[in-house]
């Protein structure tokens, strides 16, 4: 049986013994959605009340110190079992789903999100055609930045996966079989890398093309990265360097929207846990949210340096 088939069967088995999780997956069929065109790009709005717990998660270090880690094994619900697909990680069914099949891939160690090995995500993506495997940086939508985890979900759920197959972007650099495309026409500023394997050349872009942290170094907490196996059997990487964890409207008392963009939102599915937000958000608000949280990497000095390397 293929890894993708094993994963699908694990999902079905878990829902068979875990009624609370199954109810939330069933409820996904009835969540309100609508599509808003933003600069010729379709953004799908999903009103998903169950996600409030994640969207509004307090991720400051004091709040994290005071709460019990919900990804450590002793805090998991008794019905939740794990699948072992790769050394050092447990694959879990996510009980607060966005995707029709949504998984959390949790490190055996309680270690910070910054300890990520992107090779693990790339390897899993290549072994799981039909799914995306993605990483949210500690300050880019991760609701448990203190416990390293990846996520996986159905690739066809994200508008940007199909869009990027048809419109890979503008070629800006290449090294052997690896091609780097800029996708600057989008409301969210994305970089698209197509490569047979996660090469050092590809990793350099993912590790360097970021805003500065307090020490003047690339801030690796400020990124979302989505890996998938493309129709050409190459590894396709959608990379979103980030300028802000949350947009200003998250804190705005006058015109507040509860949005906390992670990889899913950057790929064109904006999760809105509150019905009022879903009903009232307008195209200009959405454009503003993406503009505030996306790093305009093309204007950075490091971009020019990487182009020449
Ligand atoms: Zn933990």
Q: Could you please describe the fold and organization of this structure?
A:
It is built from eleven helices and twelve strands. With 309 residues, the chain is an alpha+beta fold. The chain has one domain: 2-Layer Sandwich (HIT family, subunit A), CATH 3.30.428. The strands form two sheets. The protein has a nine-stranded antiparallel sheet, covered by helices on one side. The longest helix is centred in the N-terminal third of the chain and has 15 residues. The chain is globular and about 55 Å long. The termini are far apart. Zinc ion binds next to loops.
Topology (elements, then pairings):
Elements: H1 3-17, H2 19-28, E1 32-38, E2 41-47, H3 52-55, H4 61-66, E3 89-93, E4 102-107, H5 118-127, E5 131-136, E6 149-154, H6 159-166, E7 170-175, E8 178-183, E9 190-195, H7 200-208, E10 223-229, E11 235-241, H8 263-266, E12 269-272, H9 275-280, H10 283-293, H11 301-308
Zinc ion binds next to loops.
Short key terms for the protein model shown above:
single chain, 309 residues, alpha+beta, HIT family, subunit A, nine-stranded antiparallel β-sheet, three-stranded mixed β-sheet, 11 helices, 12 strands, binds zinc ion
């Amino acid at each position: 049986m293929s890894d993708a088939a094993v994963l699908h069967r694990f999902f079905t088995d878990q829902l068979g013994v875990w009624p609370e999780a199954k109810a939330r997956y069933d409820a996904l069929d009835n969540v309100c959605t609508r599509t808003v065109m933003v600069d010729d790009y379709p953004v799908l709005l999903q009103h998903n009340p169950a996600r409030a717990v994640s969207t509004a998660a307090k991720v400051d270090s004091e709040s994290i110190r005071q709460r019990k880690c919900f990804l450590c094994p002793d805090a998991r619900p008794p019905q939740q079992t794990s699948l072992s697909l790769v050394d050092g990680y447990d694959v879990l069914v996510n009980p607060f789903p966005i995707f029709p099949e949504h998984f959390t891939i949790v490190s055996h160690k309680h270690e910070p999100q910054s300890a990520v090995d992107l090779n693990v995500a790339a390897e899993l993506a290549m072994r799981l055609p039909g799914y995306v495997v993605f990483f949210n940086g500690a300050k880019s939508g991760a609701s448990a930045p203190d416990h390293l985890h990846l996520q996986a979900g159905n690739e066809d759920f994200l508008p940007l996966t199909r869009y990027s197959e048809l419109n890979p972007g503008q070629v800006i650099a290449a090294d052997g079989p690896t091609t780097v495309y800029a996708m600057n026409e989008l409301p969210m500023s994305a970089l698209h890398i197509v490569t047979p394997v996660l090469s050092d050349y590809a990793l350099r872009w993912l590790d360097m093309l970021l805003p500065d942290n307090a020490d003047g170094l690339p801030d690796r907490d400020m990124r979302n990265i989505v890996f998938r196996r493309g129709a050409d059997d190459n590894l396709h990487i959608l990379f979103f360097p980030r300028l802000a964890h949350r947009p200003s409207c998250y804190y705005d008392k006058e015109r507040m929207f509860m949005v906390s963009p992670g990889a899913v939102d950057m790929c064109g599915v904006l999760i809105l846990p509150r019905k009022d937000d879903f009903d009232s958000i307008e195209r200009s608000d959405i454009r503003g949210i993406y503009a505030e949280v996306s790093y305009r990497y093309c204007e950075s000095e490091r971009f020019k340096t990487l182009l020449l390397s």
